[in-house]
Specification:
Blueprint: H1 4-7, H2 18-27, E1 30-35, H3 41-49, E2 57-62, H4 65-78, E3 87-91, E4 94-96, E5 103-107, H5 108-117, E6 124-129, H6 137-156, E7 162-167, H7 172-179, E8 183-186, E9 193-198, H8 208-222, E10 228-232, H9 236-250, E11 257-262, H10 268-272, E12 283-288, E13 301-306, E14 309-316, E15 321-328, H11 331-339, E16 347-351, H12 355-360, H13 375-383, H14 400-412, E17 416-418, E18 425-427, H15 429-434, H16 441-453, H17 456-466, H18 478-487, H19 493-508, H20 513-522, H21 527-546, H22 559-568, E19 573-577, E20 582-585, E21 592-595, E22 608-616, E23 620-627, H23 631-640, E24 645-651, E25 668-670, E26 673-674, H24 675-690, E27 696-700, H25 705-712, E28 717-720, E29 724-725, E30 727-728, E31 742-743, H26 750-757, H27 759-765, E32 770-775, H28 785-794, E33 798-804, E34 814-818, E35 821-825, H29 835-839, E36 846-855, E37 871-876, E38 882-887, E39 900-904, H30 916-923, E40 927-929, E41 935-937, H31 943-950, E42 981-984, E43 995-999, H32 1000-1010, E44 1019-1022, H33 1025-1031, E45 1043-1045, E46 1050-1053, E47 1062-1066, ...
Parallel strand pairs: 1-7, 1-8, 2-5, 2-6, 3-5, 6-7, 9-16, 10-12, 10-13, 11-12, 13-16, 15-22, 21-23, 24-27, 24-32, 27-28, 33-39, 44-46
Antiparallel strand pairs: 3-4, 9-50, 14-15, 17-18, 19-20, 19-22, 20-21, 22-23, 25-26, 29-31, 30-38, 32-36, 33-36, 34-35, 37-38, 39-42, 40-41, 43-47, 44-45, 46-47, 48-49
Region (Disordered): 1069-1144
Pfam families: DEAD, Eaf7, HA2_C, Helicase_C, OB_NTP_bind, UDPGP, WHD_HA2
Keywords: ATP-binding, Helicase, Hydrolase, Nucleotide-binding, Nucleotidyltransferase, Transferase
Length: 1144
């Protein structure tokens, strides 16, 4: 007997297994249900659950409010009741349900807020987490909360809690292991989807909005008018821009389009319009963000146009900042988007990117909890009574660095503190109040900071506007510009936003509804943002009143508002750097930001600012900016500024080669100062300049430790490395000759020495993860904020500073590759017959400066597992006995780290003193010790020329007689640390085979044909800045380096005689195997074939199976202001910029 719900709808695949699902739910406290697209899980499983519960409500969570509301309406209709009776929903600012409502659809954030007041969620007998595979931040925290509540309710013997995890067919094992639950698969009802790629768009896709626009017009021209189009874009701005362009074009089209936007901040009534049929004779075109990827089935959609992009926020623990940027989607997201076209019948998916771009995508998206600022999560968990955050086991555990960063942020805001025994975290009274407000912790601190400043009314408004979407629209009409000038304030964007909101409140008293919206549009104001902000302000005001906060206004004294903003946003405080024409974060001076062009302060240069949001394009841009006084944030910053960096100088050597019997660092180097004194003063000056307390540690050998400790006192911390026995060269047994029986084990011992001395644990306990290690006699090894920033931003574990290898340091360490792994090579490791090869600067071009950066967190659990190749040094004792010293180098440990990089640095960072000639050179007038105690050259001669002058008069070969190294030696602008070049798994071989020259265009074609997947290749292109401008359109780069690196087997580098866009291709001894479809390079052939590599049959899900159809011809569609451009065509031979290739 079918239920009423089954009679009101078409049959679904889930109907055939409903009884089995009920049995599964009865037999298990938790189960994981994988429902393929179209199976009916989101609407039917909550109804099935009503048959097994005795008391309590059924909650079903959705990642997005539009899904929660539309599903509630659908299920209410199926159950023959009004929304709010048997079935209701609850989202922010809106709820339609009663105490006896059976099924409540809600956002995961709403259920999580309930858990703060009732951690056991006692009112619910069943909680269903739908679309769990999306892994939103709230979903992951909710999964942990549910697992904990289920266990606690069971332990107490109270009403049991059933948990149902519903997901697409991915990551099933992850959920099953986390809950120890069975997996049940429900087959779906989908139709084949033909997938087409825009092959000629292979590249960075920077103009993706235009390409999407052309794709829409082309699909509209060639596809049946009955097929509606769903378009995936990244956000409201792109959607509104595309909608405006389409409406302009629509007037000239014979067949019209009905254009509907769909994004989270849209009003409910407007969101629901996408489910209505298009007007007669028109095609419905829905412009959506990723909220349309799952849950929603929009009737009539047969065509999907996928931009391949998504806008997401990423947190960098190193800098402590959130950055909003447009990223590539994952393959899983691409499949989800394509599947939207096959919900009701067969369809098509136009992917506005190439097949190669698809292959470069990650398999699945990085879970939000692994890339987000966790301060709000930790505050929520502690509010639920979880004081030992370290013991919290989420479904995927964020890095210790992310957790520590969030903890430090909350402590900086005064929200939490350590318990008396230091083992747990507890809320302060400030934190208890902050947790009550459903906004980010810095914004709730802004509100609390406004109380003594008596500007809570203004703070509530600004916080509400910052929690809503963009306030100002792109509107060039005169009326909008007049209003913008009227509300603009020289104090910054926050005061400008406040003025606009107050203008809206005044107008609201006179107008309402459509007229109010029309007024806002004419003023260039986003009515949805204003209305939503008003709702948020009302909610926050009610919470504030419940907490006993009196709402007061500062009137026209807006300085008080800016002070309260500085209190909560002090971590976003910046200081203007005149030389860089940009702002430096006060808490992370290596991070440079610029004011976004949309800011009212974009054309001014205030000395100090705070911002609310960072946007990443080519540079970091601060949005929502206000002018502040530095004194407003100094107190908070000085408390918070426990930087992550520490410095270690290697101080184990004796100056025997220079006639010294004590520590080498005690030798006078310059201006009467010893190497040790220069290192200490240089470091002290750095701390003074940046107002920080970066510690300096000295790793001494047993030869130097006691004497050094006596000299440095409290100016530096000291620890001692191990000692190893010297071996008799003949017997290989330890010798017994007093002090000469031992030798330091080399700098590779630093990992064990840090652990054994307790210094590693001590540094980590103070939040200092990054250590900069260098020799004490290297007077050029000053602490670099640029490289420290690189370590933090990129999450690197190991960075080696390298420079170009010269004739005078040809015996120094270099880099090689063995078995795909970058490794360090020193001359004692080289067989005698290959010494000449090793010393050739034409073969081995990279020199290790022994300036090393290491993350302590990367090896804190395994310091004894960090290994290096043994270096065998043959020595002679004072008695003439031949001995062997076994040593390791810190450079040799590069092979132990997966996230290892080399950076090219200028020669000025490597000024070592290995003997008397080096010492005389440093003492000469060629060098000056500046005010920062850094050694500087006095003239324009290169470091190489200076070394020749003092060392070897026979080394007079012209620079042009040597092959170029890592960079073009004539490109002097490349010798700045601020323009770092990055190397991933650096590879250096003696090239063999054929050398050919190609221009840039030919080279790109050559690379495309040799390698189908650049991410699994290994070749490097070294470009001049001019060449890079030509190349940058081809590859999406976060920065703009002068060296572009891919991954392993080819090197492509400039030849000395090359022209600006000509390259020398050096074939390796063992080039990678190439298939018959790939182009071979012949000695006699200077041209490269441009024929595309044939695609192999792709293995796609059935959502992406191509449907049969006759080939179509290309279509050109005119777009206002742009040239005609074809976007899709089934004939793969076309070379138009947007050709789409049908997937087989």
């Amino acid at each position: 007997m079918r239920s009423h719900s089954q009679l009101n709808r078409l049959a679904l695949p889930i109907d055939d297994v409903a009884d089995q699902i009920l049995e599964l739910l009865c037999d298990n406290d938790t189960c994981v249900i994988l429902g393929e697209t179209g199976c009916g899980k989101s609407t039917q499983i909550p109804q099935i659950c009503t048959r097994l519960r005795d008391t309590g409500q059924i909650a079903i969570t959705q990642p997005r409010r539009v899904a929660a509301m539309s599903l509630a309406m659908r299920v209410s209709d199926e159950m023959g009741s009004k929304v709010g009776d048997k079935v209701g929903y609850r989202v922010r600012f809106e709820g339609v349900c009663k105490e006896d409502t059976d099924i409540i659809y809600m956002t995961d954030g709403m259920l999580l807020r309930e858990a703060i007041t009732d951690g056991l969620l006692n009112k619910y007998s069943v909680v269903i987490v739908d679309e769990a595979h999306e892994r939103s931040l709230h979903t992951d925290v909710l999964l942990y909360t549910l697992r904990l509540a289920q266990k606690q309710r069971k332990d107490k013997g109270s009403n049991p809690l059933k948990i149902v995890i519903m997901s697409a067919t991915m990551n099933a094992d992850l959920f099953s292991r986390y809950f120890n639950a069975p997996i049940y698969l429900i087959r779906g009802r989908t139709f084949p989807v033909e997938v087409l790629y825009a092959e000629a768009l292979d590249g960075d896709g920077s103009d993706y909005v235009y390409n999407v626009l052309v794709s829409i017009l082309q699909a509209h021209e060639r596809e049946p008018i009955s097929d509606d189009i769903l378009v995936f874009l990244t956000g409201r701005e792109e959607i509104e821009l595309t909608a405006a362009k389409l409406r302009d074009v629509n007037e000239k089209l014979a067949q019209k389009m009905a254009v509907f936007p769909l994004y989270a901040a849209l009003k409910t009534t407007q969101q629901q319009k996408v489910f209505e049929p298009a007007p007669e004779g028109e095609r419905k075109v829905i412009l959506a963000t990723n909220i349309a990827e799952t849950s929603l089935t929009i009737p009539g959609v047969r065509i999907v146009i996928d931009s391949g992009k998504v806008k997401q926020k990423t947190f960098t623990a190193g800098d402590g900042i959130d950055v909003l940027r447009v990223e590539r989607i994952s393959k899983a997201q691409a499949a989800q988007r394509a599947g939207r076209a096959g919900r009701e019948s067969s369809g098509k998916c136009y992917r506005v990117y190439s097949n190669k771009d698809f292959d470069r995508m990650q398999q699945s998206s990085v879970a939000e909890i692994l890339r987000s600022n966790l301060s709000a999560v930790i505050l929520e968990l502690i509010s639920m009574g979880l004081k030992n955050i370290k013991s919290v086991k989420l479904i995927e555990q964020p890095s210790a660095e992310m957790m520590d960063s969030a903890e430090r942020q909350l402590k900086g805001l005064g929200a939490i503190r350590d318990s008396k025994n230091g083992k747990k975290l507890v809320l302060t009274s400030v934190g208890q109040t902050m947790a009550k407000f459903p906004v980010e912790p810095p914004l709730s601190k802004v509100l609390l900071g406004s109380i003594p400043l008596e500007c809570t009314a203004e703070a509530l408004t600004v916080i509400s506007l910052l929690s809503s979407e963009e306030l100002f629209l792109q509107n060039d009409e005169d009326s909008a510009q007049v209003i913008r000038r009227k509300v603009s304030s020289t104090e910054g964007d926050h005061v400008t936003m406040l003025n606009a909101f107050n203008l809206f409140k005044a107008e609201k008293k006179k107008e309402s509804g459509h007229k109010l919206a029309e007024w806002a549009s004419q003023c260039g104001l986003n009515i949805r943002s204003l209305v939503n902000a008003a709702k948020i302000r009302k909610q926050l005001g009610e919470i504030a009143s419940e907490e006993g906060i009196v709402i007061k206004s500062c009137g026209v004294d807006r300085e008080r508002l800016r002070k309260s903003l500085a209190i909560g946003l002090f971590m976003n405080a910046c200081e203007y750097d005149n030389q860089k024409n940009a702002y430096r974060l006060l808490l992370s001076p290596s991070t440079l930001v610029r004011i976004h062009p949309s800011s009212v302060l974009s054309r001014s240069r205030p000395t100090h600012i705070v911002f609310s949001q960072l946007l990443k394009t080519t540079d970091l841009y601060a949005k929502d900016v206000s002018v502040i006084d530095k004194s407003w944030v100094e107190g908070a910053i000085s408390e918070f500024k426990k930087t992550k960096i520490a410095v270690i100088r290697l101080n184990g050597g004796l100056g025997t080669t220079m006639g010294c019997t004590g520590p080498k660092s005690f030798i006078e180097a310059k201006n009467g100062l010893t190497f040790l004194e220069i290192a200490l003063r240089q470091h002290e000056e750095f701390n003074r300049k940046w107002d920080v307390q970066v510690p300096i540690l000295l790793m001494n050998s047993f030869f130097t430790h006691d004497t050094t400790v006596d000299v440095v006192g409290s100016r530096a911390e000291c620890f001692v490395q191990s000692k190893c026995p010297r071996l008799d060269a003949a017997t290989l047994l330890p010798i017994e000759e007093g002090d000469e029986s031992w030798n330091p084990p080399g700098h590779g011992n630093i990992y064990v020495a840090l652990k054994e001395s307790g210094k590693m644990d001590e540094l980590l306990s103070k939040g200092r993860d990054i250590v900069f290690v260098s020799n004490i006699d290297n007077t050029g090894a000053e602490l670099s904020l640029e490289i420290a920033g690189l370590m933090g931003r990129e999450g690197l574990e190991y960075v080696m500073e390298c420079t170009v290898r010269t004739e005078t340091d040809k015996k120094g360490g270099t880099l090689i590759e063995i078995g795909g792994q970058a490794m360090h090579l020193e001359i004692p490791q080289v067989p005698p017959e290959h010494i000449d090869d090793f010393c050739s600067t034409r073969i081995f071009k990279v020199f290790n400066t022994n300036n090393i950066w290491v993350s302590l967190n990367a090896f804190k659990e395994k310091p004894y597992e960090i290994t290096s190749e043994i270096i065998v040094n043959k020595k002679t004792t004072s008695t003439g006995r031949a001995v062997i010293q076994l040593e390791t180098s810190i450079g040799g440990s590069i092979k132990n780290f997966t996230k290892s990089f080399c950076v090219h640095v200028p020669r000025s960072r490597f000024i070592p003193v290995k003997g008397i000639p080096d010492l005389e050179r440093v003492r000469s007038e060629q060098y000056t010790l500046d005010d920062a105690y850094c050694l500087r050259l006095n003239d324009k001669k290169s470091e190489e020329e200076i070394r020749k002058l003092f060392f070897d008069n026979d080394l007079k070969k012209a620079a042009s007689s040597r092959g170029h190294g890592i960079v073009n030696e004539n490109a002097h602008e490349w010798t700045e640390v601020s323009e770092l070049r990055l190397f991933s798994k650096v590879v250096y071989y003696k090239p063999a085979g054929v050398n050919r020259h190609f221009n840039l265009g030919q080279l790109v074609k050559y690379m495309n044909n040799i390698f189908e997947d650049e991410e699994h290749c290994d070749f490097a292109i070294f470009l001049t800045p001019e060449d890079y401008k030509l190349y940058q359109k081809r590859k999406e780069m976060t920065n703009k380096p002068d060296i572009i690196i891919f991954k392993p087997a080819y090197k492509i580098r400039p030849t000395p005689e090359m022209e600006k866009s000509t390259f020398n291709v050096a074939m390796l001894d063992k080039p990678p195997e190439r298939t018959a479809s790939q182009v071979s390079l012949k000695e006699t052939d200077r041209s490269i074939s441009s024929t595309p590599v044939p695609l192999s049959s792709s293995k796609k899900s059935k959502e992406e199976n191509s449907r049969s159809g006759s080939p179509t011809t290309s279509a050109s569609v005119a777009v206002p202001g742009r040239k005609k451009k074809a976007i899709a065509k089934n004939d793969s031979r076309s070379s138009s910029p947007g050709v789409a290739k049908k997937e087989k």
